[in-house]
Write a structure and sequence with these properties.
This protein is α+β, with helices and mostly antiparallel strands. It contains two helices and seven strands. This is Fe-S cluster assembly iron-binding protein IscA.
Length: about 100
């Protein structure tokens, strides 16, 4: 499993995690959203880790996903835009994209 995360993005995610007070273990879940013929966009959420989730820590940042999302996690790149503080999530080699029928 290869996830690249910049030091700045890791620091912000750890800060967000630090602010939470939960009884259960928490992790970040990155979900790929595809629509139409465009490239995937991503959402990131802080979740409670469920027993059926797979997980990993990268730079002390916990990530979790359901097994069917594993291919989307492998190769993910996470950075932080220094100008606006928003996360930049990308996958240079997405595992699968459906053929566009709109062309």
């Amino acid at each position: 499993m290869k996830i690249q995360i910049s030091d700045l993005a890791a620091a912000k995610l750890l800060y967000i995690l630090y602010q939470e007070h939960a009884d259960q273990p928490l992790a970040f879940r990155v979900m790929a959203h595809t629509s139409g013929c465009g490239t995937a966009s991503f959402a990131i959420d802080l979740i409670e880790v469920l027993p059926h989730f797979e997980s990993i820590k990268i730079k002390d940042v916990p990530f979790a996903w359901i097994p069917s999302e594993r291919a989307w996690m492998d190769g993910l790149i996470i950075d932080l835009n220094r100008d606006n503080g928003k996360f930049i999530l990308a996958h240079p080699n997405p595992p699968s994209q459906s053929q566009c029928q709109l062309s």
